[in-house]
């Protein structure tokens, strides 16, 4: 039997940080009938939080808003927020010093059967869990994707001192909250999905730097091409479908050798001030005349429609929540960089 609070027994969630990610977590949890206490010391935190949660709650599908709506409160102190919580979600900025302070305070105040999770987009749990002197074994990363109240993916990463039961409990808990968790079996800066994105961005930046294409061309190439397929199935399944009866084995046999040449020719750009200015200027040109709030609203509406279509079509395969074979959940590749509280880090 798990030593941690069972998913169905969770009634109160503590969120640390009322920024974009923390507010989205509050939206999702309250929409599912859970009471949420958000800790943030900023003077305008409560006004921003309630405005965001009210707006985002309208975007959620009926299945997540059909029952009781949980209570939402804002407090200034981490210990006060976590004291009665059944689950703790840290959603502060990516600063290791503040991250360590938050987890030390949460560890001292939260019950020992409560998971302490971080939404960090790139920091490894080993880099801050040693700040917890009581129960570091229940500390892990649960990294969502923006906007987290709509995008179901979440990456679960244990640190060098995280026990396997905590990882199992996190997989089950976030699946219960409607997320699609994947288990990351080694600590890496950026986890997995941000690393995959970074690989694409690296080549995209290099192509723009060389003048091969513009920023707008790159966006069109992905959004009107492979991005459409990737939104339905991932890169391996997409390759498998491309291979016809022979599947991915046929693709690797025929496209594998030339792909090695492509890999060898991929760029390794330096993010120079000149390249940053070029990318920013071209992006500004491509988005000129568009209201970014309106673009975001249309994006979120399209995300909702796509998720509903995938569910109706049966193209919806969350990872199972059972223990995975391979490296132990608590094994780590080593500590990484650091994190903090308030506005929240980058969740691309």
UniProtKB/TrEMBL annotation:
Q: Does the keyword 4Fe-4S apply?
A: no
Which pathway does it take part in? Lipid metabolism; butanoate metabolism
Every copy of the 3-hydroxyacyl-CoA dehydrogenase C-terminal domain together lies at 190-255
Q: What InterPro entries does the database record attribute to this sequence? A: 3-OHacyl-CoA_DH_NAD-bd, 3HC_DH_C, 6-PGluconate_DH-like_C_sf, 6PGD_dom2, NAD(P)-bd_dom_sf
**One Pfam entry name:** 3HCDH_N
Biased region (Low complexity) positions are 323-332
Keyword Oxidoreductase attributed: yes
Positions of the region Disordered? 318-348
Gly residues bias locations: 333-348
Q: Which residue ranges does the record assign to the 3-hydroxyacyl-CoA dehydrogenase NAD binding domain?
A: 13-185
Record's superkingdom? Answer: Bacteria
Kindly state which keywords UniProt assigns to this record, in alphabetical order. Oxidoreductase
Matching Gene3D superfamilies, A to Z?
A: N-(1-d-carboxylethyl)-l-norvaline Dehydrogenase, domain 2 (1.10.1040.10), NAD(P)-binding Rossmann-like Domain (3.40.50.720)
Against PANTHER family, the record matches this protein to: 3-HYDROXYACYL-COA DEHYDROGENASE FAMILY PROTEIN (PTHR48075), 3-HYDROXYBUTYRYL-COA DEHYDROGENASE (PTHR48075:SF5)
Q: Which family does it belong to?
A: Belongs to the 3-hydroxyacyl-CoA dehydrogenase family.
**What is this protein's record name?**
3-hydroxyacyl-CoA dehydrogenase NAD-binding domain-containing protein
């Amino acid at each position: 039997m798990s030593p941690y609070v069972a998913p169905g027994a969770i009634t109160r969630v503590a969120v640390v940080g009322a920024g974009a990610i923390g507010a989205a977590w509050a939206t999702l949890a309250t929409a599912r009938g859970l009471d949420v206490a958000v800790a943030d010391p900023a003077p305008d935190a409560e006004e921003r939080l309630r405005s965001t949660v009210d707006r985002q709650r309208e975007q959620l599908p009926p299945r997540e808003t059909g029952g009781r709506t949980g209570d939402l409160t804002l407090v200034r102190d981490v210990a006060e927020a976590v004291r009665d919580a059944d689950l703790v979600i840290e959603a502060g900025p990516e600063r290791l010093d503040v991250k360590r302070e938050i987890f030390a305070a949460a560890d001292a105040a939260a019950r020992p059967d409560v998971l302490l999770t971080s939404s960090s987009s790139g920091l490894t749990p080993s880099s801050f869990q040693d700040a917890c002197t009581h129960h570091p074994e229940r500390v892990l990363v649960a990294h969502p994707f923006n906007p987290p109240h709509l995008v179901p993916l979440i990456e679960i990463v244990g640190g060098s001192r995280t026990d396997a039961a905590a990882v199992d409990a996190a997989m089950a808990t976030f699946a219960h909250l409607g997320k699609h968790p994947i288990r990351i079996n080694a600590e890496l800066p950026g986890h997995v999905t941000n690393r995959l994105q970074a690989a694409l961005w690296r080549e995209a930046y290099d192509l723009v730097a060389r003048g091969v294409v513009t920023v707008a061309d790159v966006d069109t190439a992905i959004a009107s091409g492979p991005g459409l397929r990737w939104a339905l199935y991932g890169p391996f399944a997409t390759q498998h479908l491309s291979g016809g009866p022979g599947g991915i084995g046929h693709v690797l046999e025929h496209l594998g050798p030339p792909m090695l040449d492509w890999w060898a020719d991929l760029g390794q750009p330096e993010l120079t001030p000149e390249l940053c200015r070029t990318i920013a200027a071209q992006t500004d040109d491509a988005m000129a005349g568009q209201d970014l709030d309106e673009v975001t609203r249309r994006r979120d509406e399209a995300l909702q429609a796509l998720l509903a279509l995938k569910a109706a079509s049966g193209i919806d395969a969350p990872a199972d929540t059972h223990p995975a074979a391979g490296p132990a959940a608590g094994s780590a590749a080593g500590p990484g960089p650091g994190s903090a509280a308030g506005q929240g880090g980058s969740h691309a």
